[in-house]
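User: Can you model how magnesium ion sits in this protein?
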Amino acid sequence: MHRVAAIGGDGIGPEIIAAGRTVLDAAGERYGFDIAWEEFDIGADRYLATGELLTEDELADLSRFKAIYFGAIGDDRVKPGILEKGILLAIRFHFDQYINLRPIKLLEGVWTPLAGKGPENIDFVVVRENTEDFYVGIGSRFSGRERRVLEVERELYQVKFGLDIETDADELAYQIGVVTREGSARVIRYAFDLARARKKKLASVDKANVLSDVYGLWRDVFSGIAAEYPDVSTEFNFVDAVTMWFVKNPEWYDVVVTPNMFGDIITDLGAMIQGGLGLAPGGNINPDGTSMFEPIHGSAPKYRGMNIANPLATIWAGSMLLSHLGEEAAAAAVLRGIEQSIAAGVVTKDMGGAATTSGVGDYVASAVRSG
Ligand code: IPM
Ligand code: MG
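Assistant: Here's the modeled complex, given as structure tokens:
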């Protein structure tokens, strides 16, 4: 018996999570385990009705679960950033989900915009640091005439930017990235272990040539840990260059480890080469705590309730969830089920098919049951 928390969230979130749950329940039937689901009503509707994003009680409840199955958040009625920071990032940070695991794998039968590339060329994993870097939320924005300025900010303005905040009228904003030795070491070590279990190749993606303080530390930590893994071959790539190589030579990559913000950016590129956001799952993992599995796409509010959204990224995230719970055979069966639905053409409109969200879920579920 596994207990799993489900957060449908906004827009298409509840529908894709429902399809995913059907598949995971079928996997349980076939492989001999039960999933006890607990649903959490978190998202824009409740925020608009009550002003609550995530309550202390919910965080305490969620902490009793090893895994959360998460749909999507985001709603046109709410200013961008509120739900993202108040729910999604809040969960990632609160539960210290320091690994954001994003497989970039072109499944059999899926179209990629990269000419001449097939499943044998596109199969790597991005390990994104998930709790530090420019996501720590340290920053400020105000005009030079603002009088209520902290002493430390006054100094920052004067010493770093040469602005006299008492007299200069210029508007100014800053945001600080933070990298710690411990924070980098734990995710880099995870990436080395993963590489060791795969093709033993690990690339660090950073921008140490310009942001040399934060990513200089990152590189030092990487090099130190690399010495413990002589069997894994390593390289440093700059993030701008990696956007070229992912397109030109995706087959070069096996495991990629990268700080938070670059990981955000390059995994959308990765999603596109593996067939689009409809096929891109992610896991937010704390190996010793509460982890969360989600499609990396958003809530697509305009398709809400229409039963046409592609649930495959969510189902794939469900496969990652099962693997995290130790149900490896079931996890593999779910991924095979996804490939079967693609081979049979039981896919949604974005992939050229005519199936509904629930129809795809049901198809994959029956494939898993009879597989
Ligand atoms: C992602 C998303 C989030 C992020 C947003 C919605 C906060 O883009 O999961 O990649 O930036 O991490
Ligand atoms: Mg993103």
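A couple of observations from the model: The chain has twelve helices and twelve strands. The two ends are 21 Å apart (CA to CA).
User: Helpful, thanks.
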